């Protein structure tokens, strides 16, 4: 399906009285959009919503995966994991921004974990289980801090209505999709790892390089 056709229909759907068109122009645009959608078997969701994916090592049940629901919420998108990908569905640049941040944040978490594993707090753990638990505590605390930063970054962008529409569009695009298993509730044991994870999350700079993207997201709302 031609993307130019989808863009043409999307433009027609924006031609409303609320946006300065006369009643006759709005009616004509709506009729033309409906005609084109019928001819090409398209729904409004096909036209107005897009999807963008990023490679994912997890499927929604890992410690860091608590971050991705917040990312989708804050970018007015809906998330689905499929075939090693995290796919975000939504309107405007939302999916592109979400997929970009998904990759950026995953790298930040991976790098921070690697640095944490070189610290005495991790290295003095004697068993594989205690080391695994320390990494989980570190990651959980980092994720909590990053969720707070996302909430602040997108405070002027979040829209419950757009988010609900994105969820509906995702369900239409992926009718056989199933909800991901929720990550287990963390059981914190290592206070030092928690503090270090929180500090690592605070050091992640989300505004640098995202101002233009966030502005586009807001303007496209």
From TrEMBL:
A Pfam family per the record: DUF7168
Q: Which domain of life is it from?
A: Bacteria
Q: Which residues form the DUF7168 domain?
A: 54-175
Record domain DUF2786: where? 5-44
Protein's UniProt name? Uncharacterized protein
Species source reads Cereibacter sphaeroides (strain ATCC 17025 / ATH 2.4.3)
């Amino acid at each position: 399906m031609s993307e130019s056709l989808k863009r043409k229909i999307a433009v027609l759907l924006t031609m409303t009285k609320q946006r300065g068109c006369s009643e006759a122009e709005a009616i004509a645009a709506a009729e033309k959009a409906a005609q084109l959608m019928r001819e090409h078997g398209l729904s409004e969701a096909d036209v107005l919503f897009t999807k963008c994916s990023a490679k994912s090592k997890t499927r929604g049940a890992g410690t860091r995966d608590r971050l991705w629901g917040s990312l989708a919420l804050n970018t007015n998108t809906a998330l689905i994991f499929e075939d090693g990908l995290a796919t975000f569905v939504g309107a405007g640049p939302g999916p592109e921004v979400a997929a970009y941040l998904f990759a950026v944040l995953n790298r930040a978490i991976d790098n921070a974990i690697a640095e944490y594993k070189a610290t005495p707090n991790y290295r003095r753990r004697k068993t594989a289980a205690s080391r695994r638990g320390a990494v989980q505590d570190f990651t959980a605390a980092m994720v909590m801090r990053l969720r707070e930063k996302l909430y602040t970054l997108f405070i002027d962008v979040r829209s419950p209505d757009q988010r609900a529409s994105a969820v509906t569009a995702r369900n239409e695009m992926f009718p056989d999709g199933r909800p991901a298993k929720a990550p287990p509730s963390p059981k914190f044991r290592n206070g030092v790892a928690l503090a270090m994870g929180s500090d690592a999350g605070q050091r992640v700079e989300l505004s640098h390089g995202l101002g233009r993207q966030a502005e586009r997201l807001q303007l496209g709302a």
